[in-house]
Amino acid sequence: MNIMLFHSTYGLRPAVREAADRLRAAGHQVQVPDLFEGRTFETVEEGMAHQEEIGRDELLKRAVLASAPFSDQGLVYAGFSFGGSIAQHLALADEKTRGLLLLHGTADLEENTSVDELPVQLHIADPDPFEPHDWLTAWYLRMRKAGADVEVHTYPGAGHLFTDPGLDDYDAEAAGQTWAVALTFLDSL
Question: How many helices, marked H, and strands, marked E, lie in the chain?
């Protein structure tokens, strides 16, 4: 499977590279674009400030340019938190998308969004300060209405970015479960 994996608002940290290596070890081809052009951040606030400085349109443009050379192959878009929102936007706009793997984050959907049974898997902390229950319920219903085949996996008590061993949010048990389920999902596509 060809996977386009987007980093979180912290930037292209070692945990993202390790995730890509894990996916490659499972037989997948993985691209990991650096939307922040080498910058990484110690806090979510610093990363969000940098995102705002670059702007949403420019970040999406960078993501599209990174994905374009591979999209004819039928990509699985994946991402961590902010990267999940980027992955979702691209997956819903690319008619050749094979799947969408969201780790710790979602994005809003346009009203007229329509996909043909797109396989979507979301892994999220419960509760998650960036993805409240009412938001997730509305997101799930909009994704289903758009035609996506959605699975949501929640991890009670885990921190927001619980798969990143370099952050305080890290939860080894939840991360292990996430990767086991995600790899099975990817193998099914």
Answer: 6, 6
